[in-house]
User: Fold this.
Amino acid sequence: MKFTQNHLLTAVVLCLGVATGVHAESETDLTTLPLESLLELRVTSVSKKSQTLPEAAAAIFVITQDDIRRSGATTIPDLLRMVPGVQVARIDSSKWAISSRGLNGRFSNKLLVLQDGRSLYTPLFAGVYWEVQDTVMEDIERIEVIRGPGAALWGANAVNGVINIITKSAENTRGGLISAGGGTSEKGFGTARYGMNIGDNSFLRLYAKHLERGNGLDAAGNGTHDSWQMSRGGFRLDSKPTDRDTLTLQGEYYDGRLQETYKIYSFPTPPNSAFSQNIDTDTAVSGGNILTRWQRNLTGTDSLSLQLYYDHNQRNMLVLPQKFDTVDLDFQHRFSTAANQDIVWGLGYRFGHYDVSNTPTLSFQNPQESNHLFSAFVHDEISLIPEKLSLIIGSRFEHNDYTGFEIQPNGRILWTPAPGHTLWGAVSRAVRTATRGEQDIQYRYRTLSSADPLNTSGLPLRLEIIGSRDFKSEELLAYEIGYRVEPAARLTVDVALYYNDYKHLRILIPGASFVE
Assistant:
């Protein structure tokens, strides 16, 4: 694998939509609320703290629970179709390609996806396995989508965007819920959830969900081998042991089966001279996670938080059975100073262990490997003119086992000349770090010489893709400017202009031929 430099100039993105939602637990008809109430819609992904939309110096779109209910969508990828600037392409019955600001593909490796603070990014090959990312649709409080870099706060791989899925507190889901349905494509789906009080200050939610989807159709109208089914269950416990402390404990386990078709290349032998064959197979997928988070309010806006989670995923794929485990620890502290500064800083550590089973098609130089990621960040919002003009500076510092030390700074300016009007600009650096697949992979197949389909010379060619330990991070330097206005209670206009300068993009370059 080699590197190249590329410059990408993008066009203006104009976002028109209905401004919806202030709090997920509210059942109020949001279209009847005045503009002042809609401006109180709060987000946390832009600055790792709760703030209103006019205070957010980024191109952000929020899918509220009201939007989810009205959409009728039954999967998270389908929900993301309503986000301006996000590309959602369905590959087959169970696979999606999702990206922000271009560079889309099965494993869009420049989009960071989070759920309740847990990274859904697949570190083995980069990207997200969207078919295993799910939860009870009614339990999602909101989905915050940032178009553009968010690496200064969230770290590597938050290059072209960040998707943050936030679920409701168990306190807001008390009682029972049963929902079910089915059709020609979605053969059947059902959800059961129950929430209850445990004492005076603790709340528990239990849930289970199952879905089955049928095969898709090819261009000729024939059924394809891509049906799938998935079951999952989990819990969430929210407690308030003191007036200042909140504690969350949540976990989930899923198990499913995907029908997949692989094109396997092999050396042809007479009388069979085929170069490849399609193999239909069933892939078993399973995994689970458990997360705990403690938060303490100090004084005013000052707060502390500590989060720890463990994540396990396993895929019994024909070409590369794989499993990986992740342990992540994150600490954050927010405080204000007398000089009109609001500072958020934090430390993080992530341990990952990967185990793959080599096959004739795909293999790794080291089938088992562990790696470590150390990180720190600081985010300083300086109020130059109170409630009018703010300067935001910060950076994230990371050290990983693949590319070493990475710095991802960020500078933003926010101007709110009048209520409902926000003008912002930003300059950011973000990186997409190398993965184990890019450094260790060996992908090979054999085929006949193109000059002689019958291979009368008897000299076969071996075509290979070989990873390299010299693979470095892909880099982005992004320039952004945006304007957000809410001229009426039922209308939001969001305009963003950006220029992205990419370096060291991953590409494939043919190498020298040789006879084995």
